Amino acid sequence: MYVVFFGVGVGFVLLSFFADTMLDFEGFGFFFLQPKLIAVFLTVTGGVGMILTSRFEGVLVAGIILLLSVLGGLLVAGFIYRCVIVPLKKRENTSTFHKEDTIGTTAKVVSTIPKGGYGKIRYSVSGSYVTGPARSEDDSDVNIGEKVFILDIEKGTYIVRRDLDIHALLRR
Asked: Into which CATH architecture does domain 99-171 fall?
């Protein structure tokens, strides 16, 4: 029985690491149903059971070995959850940003914004470039390569003004 637990656990570990790169396993809302934790539980339970069974034999001892194996599996899986998975989840989204945080920054026009129309801007966030749809605040033409100032965001579209216009307003 423990050999089966151990084998299934090792196979599950391998499967979960390969599948986790292609799919997003979030544990179906229960932390203990995460594939990695199930794999660790099965592997440790099988390993402890095999070790204890090889050293101690007997019918009465079988129940104690099963109990110790399950407790060992739960202990190690709980330790990995608490000390590895939880801290990783907390640090997972530190590089994300909100579009609203870009209001007040400058960007570069990468697709001409025609008079009364829409174009595209590009700006840098944490060393990565982000592009998005944009329109001019005063509905004027803004050419490729011009620097613009992000004033607002309406329904996912950046409202921009020429960077030169902002500097002129600040000088007054």
From this structure: Beta Barrel (2.40)
